[in-house]
Specification:
mainly alpha, Ferritin
Length: 177
Amino acid sequence: MAEQSFPAALNGQISNEFAASQQYIGAAVYYDSETLPRLAAFFYRQAVEERNHAMIMVQYLLDAGEEVQIPDIKSQQTRYDDVVGPVQMALEQEKRVTDEINKLFSLAREAGDFRAEQFLTWFVKEQVEEISSMTDLLNVVERARDNPLLAEDFLAREQIGDQGADPTAPPAAGGML
């Protein structure tokens, strides 16, 4: 990524964030089809959150006077072998995004782009929460593999994830819808 400009790299990350949103919709559809409404709702919320991350990046590029590229949408998986599969996918996805955000941060730092580095600080913090939430949920669904209603009960009792808008988040293009 070091050969890429920060705006070009951020456009690539916008594509990754939209793809993550679509992957989470696929997971939610799977849980909906299995009549696991709390797991479905969790992933629908995650999809909106990832979409908002993309829109925060869009707004940053607009504010910086840079070109914004909106990616094509590709089909996502909606079937899994068991209730653990979507959460395993999500944790892998969040680890990948953490690596991508860290590379963007390094690119901004190497380029001496303090504005971009400051912008990414929120995303670095956000990824800690994302990995923690998915790790916790994976632990629960692995234990509840044979009785996924236990995972539903867990989600009814516990709040995992940010459960809504973060007032410290940078502004998103179009507002956080």
